[in-house]
Design a protein that fits this description.
With 1287 residues, the protein is an alpha+beta fold. It is built from 38 helices and 33 strands. The chain is globular, with a radius of gyration of 35 Å.
């Protein structure tokens, strides 16, 4: 994608017989966001550098010293080369993926001892010398230790104690001594470090002397208090040493755990080589394994007493106290850090490719994880699922294969890095560590480790490596592995970007179907720390190691237990906080709740348990939902609790927001976090009762959801909120079905039998800006400012009696339409029927006319002008919709094709070209549009309901930026294909979205990032069903089940056409989107380079605004997404509002406040709600015709005016306007036409001489801009109100 760093993408097609290698290079997006390799030295939240300097010394592994692999003439092929070729073809189905992966590793892996890391290695040695030479201190009390650190640091910082801070009178002694052992550990030492945009981390362990601790220091945070003092002293003494000259020294947290502070050193900017390398050094305190009795730190034991947390609390029997598995794991991990690194060293020695495979895993995880990412101005807290855990999983798979001690998936030490990576991904995709805990040996009872959830017990059988990892993090990891495994198994030829490079995989705003921003008052949500302390609640909160993670866990538990039937994943990302606030309860802390919905997410009724059969489950269900839980009898006779979220008449748009409504309901009921007013419906608020714990609580937070606000832009001013339940696409399709039956009922009166009616209107395939508006006479006067016709093609059965002359055939077609109109008028007198000519009432929204009539002959004769094709307008009495029926005559296409050949044989080139254009236009109208309509309708109606809203939002965005429409920019069909691409292809490695907002954001990402000149963009409608998960499939079936879509040979045909055009340099950086049926993009054409670049810049700006809006929790800036900058144009025509027929298609203004308010509760009896709804009379806003001419169907003077301007000034000016009622027409002078040119009699615009200048031997002329603008104003008399020239 655009903006990628120089990871060289080598495309090689290798044949064994000839051994020819061809390579090409292209820029790839940088591998972003290294995983938080807490124990291996790769920090979280990091992005690949945008560009690697050419003069930068290469890192180890970058082939800087590699020997040449060029083959000498006559040299034979070796067995190793043959095996490598076979491996590439069998494992990856193509050599390209293997080459890409190898190049990725060469570009990103960093090892010690290389030329680039020479200064870093010297700095590490200097830091080690400083650490081992640090002076010791005598023993002192807690208060004295704090004062000592403040004095040495000159009050710049204090001891980073965990929560709870130690009492000043705590009877322990603290001391400091130089570390006994200082070693480089982690990924840098193992040769697995990965360079990213934010650099990489080097881990240095500093083993604290055993003399600093006592035998029972594992109780009540004593070890962690002494550890914090050691960390503070290390920072103080480093800042007083020579290290301070080269590095900034600061605190940080290991695994986001306040119990595990560390020291971080970052190079200062003036250290040019180190700063260019962009690395950080983390000093991690550890202890020897025998310093404390590890046997006492089993996960089932308690080491934090209630009496320590609250004065007067009773501990009772120690065996009866709840265990502290995360507390114990945090302590044991310090003692076993060296042991784990040694184990990984041994594994690396056993498996030659282990380090490269581990690096691939960490790159993959960093690209798929949102840990440390940004949402607007908010930075997310780092995840506890990191690269170290993934490396241990890989080691477990490799070592278990040789030990034979563990059943299940195993990997061989003889495998290559690519095989190890793929095998690990497939294991992660099917394995659930919660239901199937894993252990490196069978010498321990794993039940004790698995009591707290997922478990992966380390080789020493002492610690659960997954302790503290949230369940949703493991679920998200498994889902990501499933998608990657499916791509590797089915699309290995083209999945490199989606597996390793895509930025969308870690973007919180685009990767989830719904994203809620929640502000929480931690002081209210969590247990108080002063006064009367609830020791038990305080105990469970402290177990998480961070107050933010405690709140995160509490929110996640409630939402996941309530929405299991509606979602596949609910992730709760917490915003990070500064180090000094790590233990404070902030008044407003931000969480981002991401939801991946399942296929049941639009279900109206959530079924609960039966009170008789499952009384305990029923009690829990009532506790979750309160009064919203109703007891209902269902058709099968069962009586169950249930929550109801709408009626069968609810449109799909509102059903898409059932999940956000449920989440907002739960957050308000259980946490007093109030949602913005438009999330919950009145019936939700009437059933909302606060949980017993929150009955008297004041609002402690706010919920913001962007989808409701942005969806308003897909509506119009004429459709109120109440209309959306009645004015629907389903109603339009029902009206079309009624019309179809009525016309087929006329067969006895027509010359031929009706074969079919083919709808081709966007309003009949869920893709028009708003659902078609009914204008039945009984609802008003039947008129409106703009009456949009719904285009339909009427096809009769074949006949041999159609004339062979084009003019005669058109007359017969007109006669057929007259007969259809006459018969329909007789059968349905309440309907209004008119036979019209396309010359009158033609709308540019048709998308059929692209300038001068394509059938106009060179002689000026216009024997078959399709602009004058006839049609029938039927105002359907039952539905109130207007259908425009044209006749589809198959012999006409064959006749045009035959006439083209005749003209070519007669060498009448102008006539042949005109007829060929006429044939293409006929094909576009009668065949291509009908096929496109069926594809989009199938996508929106059968497979992905969210596709409809995505298309509508994209069209609104394009139109507001004056880029939608055949005559000005992006045809409507191309906009629909862009949206279809998001749903038919696992673009960027993501599953098909379930909400319109997410689909729209991904469309913007495609427009912003796609490399149109280099990469083929194909829409595979046959793969539309791949994004729909099958709940009956097992995890293994999901990654191995065959997928629908283009076969390899079909895709090869499309790719070959693209490559052929690319070789001839006919493909520029222009938006080109193709399908299997349209491999040359000739149906709708391509978007020019100028407009493609404009789309790219606008899409990037829109994405920035959306991310900022989600980050700050406000839609105040959201209109900027749909507001185009007018200063970029040469001149702007302001139109008279009174003649803009489609002004009511503009989006409604957003007047609702986005801040959360505590609503005034008003009791509404549920049995009265239907009556209240029925009492509201159905009324659609209608307007009289602006010109006093009622019932003008499809008449839009602005679009006609723009069409004329495009025809007249097509070479000199580019025109832009909003086809949905915009009041401005913008013009941009064509730079290529603005140059001086030689005078000629046939100039394409109003020209004026340039004094004293010549072009060649002829006088120079230039465009007379002022005269052209005056001509445009004169042409637009009555339409143009003002003109602003901006040059």
């Amino acid at each position: 994608m655009a903006g990628r760093s120089a990871i060289k993408r080598k495309h090689a097609s290798t044949e064994l017989a000839t051994q020819k290698k061809h390579s090409r290079k292209s820029e790839h997006e940088a591998v972003e966001h290294s995983d938080s390799d807490e124990s291996m030295g790769v920090s979280d939240g990091e992005d690949m550098s945008d560009h690697m300097d050419e003069d930068e010394p290469k890192l180890a592994g970058e082939n800087s010293t590699a020997k040449s692999t060029e083959r000498r003439p006559g040299q034979t092929v070796t067995n190793a080369e043959i095996m490598a070729l076979n491996e590439a073809s069998l494992l990856f189905k193509t050599n390209l993926f293997k080459l890409q992966v190898d190049e990725l590793l060469n570009e990103t892996m960093v090892t010690s001892g290389s030329k680039a890391t020479r200064d870093l290695d010297a700095a590490l040695k200097q830091i080690r010398d400083v650490l081992v030479a640090m002076e010791s201190t005598k023993e002192m009390s807690v208060e004295a230790a704090v004062n000592h650190v403040r004095k040495l640091s000159k009050s710049k910082f204090s001891v980073p104690f965990p929560d709870p801070a130690p009492p000043a009178d705590l009877p322990i002694k603290m001391a400091f001594d130089a570390p006994e052992v200082v070693n480089i550990v982690g990924s840098y030492a193992l040769g697995m470090a990965v360079r990213t945009g934010q650099g990489f981390s080097v881990d240095m362990m500093a083993q604290m002397p055993a003399s600093l601790f006592q035998e029972r220091d594992h109780l009540n945070f004593r070890y962690f208090y002494k550890r914090a003092f050691f960390v503070a002293m290390v920072r103080v003494l480093l800042q007083k040493s020579a290290v301070q000259d080269a590095f900034d020294v600061d605190f940080d947290l290991l695994r986001s755990d306040t119990r595990l502070p560390i020291v971080v050193l970052r190079p200062k900017p003036d250290m040019r080589r180190l700063a260019k390398l962009n690395c950080s050094i983390r000093i991690i305190p550890t202890i020897a394994p025998d310093t404390l009795p590890l046997k006492r730190l089993a996960p089932g034991r308690n080491h934090v007493r209630f009496s320590f947390l609250a004065r007067g609390a009773s501990d009772g029997e120690v065996d009866e106290l709840p265990p502290t598995p995360q507390y114990n794991a945090a302590l044991v991990s310090d003692a076993l850090l060296t042991t784990h690194i040694t184990y990984l060293h041994e594994t690396k020695d056993l498996c030659a490719e282990f380090a490269r495979a581990a690096a691939l895993l960490r790159i993959w995880h960093s690209q798929h994880s949102s840990s440390g990412r940004s949402v607007g101005s908010q930075h997310l807290m780092r995840s506890r699922m990191n690269g170290f855990i993934l490396t241990m999983v890989l080691a477990w798979l490799v070592r278990s294969a040789n030990s034979g001690g563990v059943s299940g998936a195993r990997l061989s030490t003889a495998m290559t890095a690519h095989q190890l990576f793929k095998g690990t991904i497939e294991f992660l995709a099917i394995h659930d560590f919660a239901s199937l805990p894993a252990q490196f040996s069978n010498s321990v009872d794993i039940v004790e480790f698995a009591q707290g959830g997922a478990a992966l017990v380390d080789p020493t059988a002492s610690v659960n490596l997954l302790a503290g990892v949230a369940p949703w993090e493991l679920t998200e990891l498994r889902m990501q592995a499933q998608r990657t495994a499916r791509d590797l198994n089915h699309h290995s030829a083209s999945c490199f970007d989606s597996v390793f490079l895509s930025t969308a995989l870690s973007d919180v705003v685009s990767k989830y179907d719904h994203i809620l921003r929640v502000e929480v008052d931690l002081e209210v949500l969590l247990t108080t720390r002063v006064g009367d302390i609830d020791a038990q609640k305080r105990f469970y909160e402290l177990e998480h190691g961070h107050p933010i993670i405690a709140a995160q866990s509490r929110i996640s538990k409630v939402l996941n237990s309530a929405l299991a039937h509606y979602t596949r994943l609910i992730s709760v990302h917490a915003a990070s906080s500064i180090f000094d606030n790590r233990t404070k309860l902030t008044r407003r802390h931000v969480f981002f709740i991401g939801v991946v919905a399942n296929s049941e997410s639009r279900r109206l009724v959530d079924l609960g348990p039966s009170p008789d059969a499952e009384p305990q489950e029923a009690a829990r269900f009532r506790a979750l939902w309160g009064r919203k839980a109703e007891l209902r009898r269902f058709r099968d006779g069962s009586i169950r609790l249930a929550t109801v979220w709408g009626t069968n008449k609810m449109p799909q748009e509102k059903r898409a927001f059932i999940v956000p409504r449920m989440m907002a309901f739960l957050l308000q009921r259980h946490f007093a976090i109030y949602a913005q007013p438009d999330i919950l419906l009145p019936e939700d608020k009437s059933a909302l009762d606060m949980s017993p714990q929150m009955e008297s609580a004041d609002p402690m937070g706010a919920v913001f959801e962007l989808g409701q606000s942005i969806n308003e832009f897909a509506s119009t001013r004429d459709l109120s909120a109440s209309d959306t339940d009645r004015v629907t696409f389903e109603a339009a399709l029902i009206g079309f079905d009624g019309l179809q039956k009525e016309i087929k009922g006329l067969e006895d009166k027509l010359p031929l039998r009706v074969l079919a009616l083919h709808p081709v209107a966007p309003g009949l395939r869920y893709s028009s800006l708003a659902p078609p508006k009914p204008l039945s006479v009984e609802h008003g006067n039947g008129d409106d400012a703009y009456i949009e016709p719904l285009h339909v093609l009427l096809e009769f059965t074949s006949s041999t009696k159609w004339p062979d002359d084009i003019a005669a055939l058109h007359k017969v077609k007109t006669a057929f339409l007259l007969r259809v109109a006459e018969c329909y008028r007789e059968a349905h007198p309440a309907a209004q029927v008119d036979v019209c000519n396309r010359f009158f009432g033609y709308s540019a929204a048709d998308g059929l006319l692209t300038g001068i009539s394509p059938t106009q002959l060179a002689s000026g004769m216009d024997d078959f002008d399709y602009e004058r094709d006839s049609f029938v307008d039927i105002r359907h009495a039952q539905s109130g919709l207007t259908f425009r029926i044209s006749l589809l005559c198959s012999p006409e296409g064959a006749l045009l094709e035959r006439k083209v050949q005749e003209m070519k044989r007669a060498k009448l080139t102008p006539q042949a070209d005109a007829l060929e254009s006429a044939y293409r236009r006929w094909t576009r109208i009668n065949q291509w549009r009908a096929m496109h309509h069926r594809q989009i309708l199938d996508l929106c109606q059968r497979h992905h309901p969210a596709a409809s809203l995505t298309i509508r939002l994209l069209k609104r965005w394009l139109s507001r930026h004056m880029l939608l429409g055949q005559s000005v920019g992006v045809p409507e069909e191309v906009a629909e294909l862009i949206a279809a691409r998001i749903f038919t292809d696992s673009w960027n490695g993501l599953a098909a979205p379930k909400s319109g907002l997410t689909g729209f954001i991904r469309c913007l990402q495609l427009l912003a990032d796609w490399r149109w000149k280099e990469d083929l963009c194909v829409v595979d409608f046959a793969a539309a069903s791949n994004g729909i998960e099958d709940q009956q499939q097992t995890r293994k079936e999901r990654i191995w089940a065959p997928t629908e879509g283009l076969a390899a040979n079909e895709y090869a045909v499309v790719q070959a056409k693209f490559d052929e055009r690319a070789k001839t340099s006919r493909i520029k950086d222009e938006l080109r989107i193709v399908t299997l049926e349209n491999p040359d993009a000739e149906w709708w054409g391509t978007v020019s380079v100028v407009l493609t670049r404009r789309l790219r810049s606008l899409a990037k700006a829109a994405l920035s605004v959306i991310h900022t809006s989600v980050g700050v929790g406000s839609d105040t800036d959201l209109p900027q997404v749909f507001t185009t900058p007018m200063s970029d144009y040469s001149f702007v025509l302001k139109l008279d509002k009174s003649v803009v027929c489609r002004q009511f298609d503009q989006p409604p203004s957003l007047v609702q406040p986005t801040h959360a308010e505590k609503p005034e509760t008003k009791e509404i009896f549920k049995n009265l709600l239907p009556d209240m709804q029925q009492a509201q009379a159905f009324r659609v806003k209608q307007h009289s015709n602006l010109f006093g001419q009622p019932n003008m169907v499809g008449f839009d003077p602005v679009s006609l005016f723009v069409r004329d301007l495009v025809n007249v000034y097509r070479d000199s000016v580019l025109f832009f306007y909003d086809m949905y009622g915009g009041r401005h027409i913008a013009g941009l002078w064509n730079p290529a036409f603005m140059k001086n040119s030689p005078f000629a009699a046939t100039m394409d615009a109003n020209m004026m001489p340039v004094p004293d200048e010549k072009v060649g031997s002829k006088p120079a002329v230039a465009v007379n801009k002022q005269a052209v603008i005056e001509e445009i104003i004169r042409l637009g008399e009555g339409l143009v109100e003002d003109c602003v020239v901006q040059e």
